[in-house]
Design goal:
253 residues, mainly beta, Immunoglobulin-like, 4-stranded antiparallel β-sheet, 1 helix, 5% helix
């Protein structure tokens, strides 16, 4: 019995003959449209492989949690979805090896909309002519995020609603709340003071924050804080009317 399982495992591994290699450009598009407006955009698919690929394109809805981890949902199931606004041409096609294909997406906004909407267009590949001896095929899919902001209807607001220092993880966490109706990208810097002298400074890359959501901004503290009293100051920039500032005093025992 043991020999059978080993043989079966080797058979399955040897049958994995296909893993497609392609790219899409651009990986995201941010559109500003009026209610009822139509706009056509394009995405280029580059087949990096020698073999012919079969591709199909379909939209899905998505959200990110406070740590920017993405979750997917059926198309047109979320209130801020624009998945139903697309006409994709071509929606399914074959692409020869080492060639490119332009895909055109017509975006038609409804008349009664305001604020921000988003969707993900997935490009999924399968082999055009799979080997008849192949038992397992590895499909590849790549997503292109599409944001549609309705011109003249957006409000950009936000606030810092939490600030804490995790002694175990040695990092500062600021919680940004997006209280507006448009997506923003939040970046910022941290400063730590002891007796009015700055002892540490850190800048972090931007994070996506969707409307009506909370986003955790983590600042690793890459130095050892000695025993004593410290003042933590955080500055967040979300391209709003002004930067947000927060501060908190901590004690290291």
């Amino acid at each position: 019995m043991k020999r059978f399982f080993v043989f079966a495992a080797l058979t399955i591994i040897s049958s994995v003959l296909f893993a497609s290699k392609f790219t899409i450009t651009p990986p995201k598009q941010e559109l500003v449209l009026k209610p009822g407006e139509n706009k056509t955009i394009s995405i280029t698919v580059d087949n990096m492989d020698d073999s012919i690929l079969h591709l199909k394109i379909y939209p899905t809805d998505w959200l990110v949690n406070s740590d920017n981890e993405i979750s997917h949902f059926p198309a047109s199931s979320l209130k801020n979805s624009c998945s139903g606004w697309f006409y994709i041409n071509p929606q399914e096609f074959n692409i020869n090896g080492k060639t490119s294909q332009e895909v055109r997406i017509s975006v038609q906004t409804p008349t009664e909309v305001f604020g921000d909407y988003w969707s993900m267009l997935y490009f999924e590949s399968t082999p055009y002519m799979p080997d008849e001896n192949s038992m397992i095929l590895l499909n590849t899919r790549i997503g292109s995020a599409i944001y549609v902001t309705i011109a003249g209807t957006t409000t950009k607001n936000g606030d810092i609603i939490g600030l804490d220092f995790d002694k175990k993880e040695n990092k500062v966490k600021a919680v940004f709340e997006n209280t507006g109706n448009v997506h923003v990208r939040v970046k910022g810097f941290l400063q730590i003071f002891k007796e009015d002298k700055m002892v540490y400074e850190k800048t972090v890359d931007e994070k996506l924050s969707l409307p009506e959501s909370k986003t955790n901004i983590y600042f690793p503290v890459e130095t050892e804080l000695q025993k004593g009293e410290y003042l933590i100051k955080v500055n967040l920039d979300y391209s709003g009317s002004e930067n947000l500032e927060g501060e908190k005093r901590i004690t290291i025992n």
